[in-house]
Amino acid sequence: MQNRLTIKDIARLSGVGKSTVSRVLNNESGVSEQTRERVEAVMQQHGFSPSRSARAMRGQSDKVVAIIVTRLDSLSENLAIQTMLPAFYAQGYDPIMMESQFSPALVEEHLGMLSRRNIDGVVLFGFTGLTEALLAPWQTSLVLLARDAKGFASVCYDDEGAIHLLMQKLFDQGHRHISFLGVPVSDATTGQRRHAAYLAFCKEHQLTPVVALPGLAMKQGYEFVSQVLNDETTALVCATDTLALGASKYLQEQRITSLQLASVGNTPLMKFLHPETITVDPGYAQAGQMAAIQLIDQITGRADPRTIIVPSHLA
After folding, report:
1. Tens-digit pLDDT profile for the chain (315 aa)?
2. What is the Cα–Cα distance from 149 to 127, expressed in whole angstroms?
3. pTM greater than 0.85 (yes/no)
4. I need a labelling partner for 268 at 20 to 30 A (CA). Which of 57, 116, 117, 225 fits?
5. Phi/psi of residue 261, nearest 5 degrees
C-alpha cells in the first residue's frame, strides 16, 4: 500500500500541481509554507515515500504545459503566444499547442488527454460555452485567457475600455455618424461587451447607432460592411482587426476613401497594410506573458488563482 500512490495522486489530494509536490519532495524554493505543510500532511497521512529513482525522474524535461488556442490562425492569440512561449521556456517548461475550434466537447477531450499525461498546467483561450464543471478538475492549474470564470485564474482584456477609447478618439475628431461592425452578442466579450460599449457611448453622446454583428471572420467583415454604411457615415469601428481587414478590402474595391476606419487589435498585419486605421492595442502581447507567469506561479505554489485585467491604449 505504501508506494501505490503517485505524485499525481498526492497533488490531487493536496489540491496543487504535481510540480509543487515535486518541489516539496526535493525541498526546493518557490512553495509557500502553507502549501508545503498541506502537501507534507497528505504524504504523511498516506505513508507516501517515493523511491530515489522516482525522484531522479522528475527532471526539467518532465515540466510540460499545454496551450489550447481557439484557432491556430487567430491574429490576436498568436500575439499572446509570442510572449507566452519565452516565459515558459525561461522556467524550463515545454509547451504543447492544441486547438479547440470553439468546441467545448473538444476542450473536454483535450483536458482529459492532458490529465492522463500528467501535464503540469494549462493556458486555455476561453470562449462562450465553457462551463465551470468542465474546468473544475483543473482549477488550481489552469489560466483562462480572454474570459473569466468564478474561482479560476484569468487574464482578461478591457473590452469596454477599448471601444470607448476608439469612440472618444473619433468623436474628438468631429465624427458624429459612427457605425459599428462586430460579433454576435452570444460571445460575451468580443461580442456583447464591445457592442454594449458602443451603444453606451452613442447614448451618452446622442449619436444614432448603426450596427451589424456578423462574426469573427475576415470574409464576414467584407460581406457585411455595406449594411452599416449610409450617406451620412463618416467613421466605422470594428470589434477586431480581422473584421476591419475584410471591411477595408470592400472599401478599396468601392473606392470609398473618405471613411475613417478604427479597430481593436493593433496587429502587425493591420499596421502594415492600413497604417491610416485608428487602432487600440488591447494588450494581447502583455496578456500572453501574464498568463504564463500566473500559471507558473500556481504550479509552484507562489500564487492562488486570480483575475487580471489588461489595460487598453490607443496605438
Report:
1. 334 567 788 888 888 987 888 778 766 777 888 888 888 888 888 777 654 334 333 443 468 999 999 999 898 999 999 999 999 999 999 999 999 999 999 999 999 999 888 899 999 999 999 999 999 999 999 999 999 999 999 999 999 999 999 999 999 999 999 999 999 999 999 999 999 999 999 999 999 999 999 999 999 999 999 999 999 999 999 999 999 999 999 999 999 999 999 999 999 999 999 999 999 999 999 999 999 999 999 999 999 999 999 999 999
2. 11
3. no
4. 225
5. -95, 140
Burial of 239 (0-12, 13-18, 19+ CB in 10 A): buried
Instruction: From residue 19, give the alpha-carbon distance in Å to each of 27, 60, 151, 269.
Output: 12, 10, 21, 39
Which residue segments constitute the domains of the chain, with CATH numbers given? 7-56 (1.10.260.40), 62-157+285-314 (3.40.50.2300), 159-281 (3.40.50.2300)
107, 67 Cβ separation under 8 angstroms: no
| Per-residue cell: 85 | 512561449
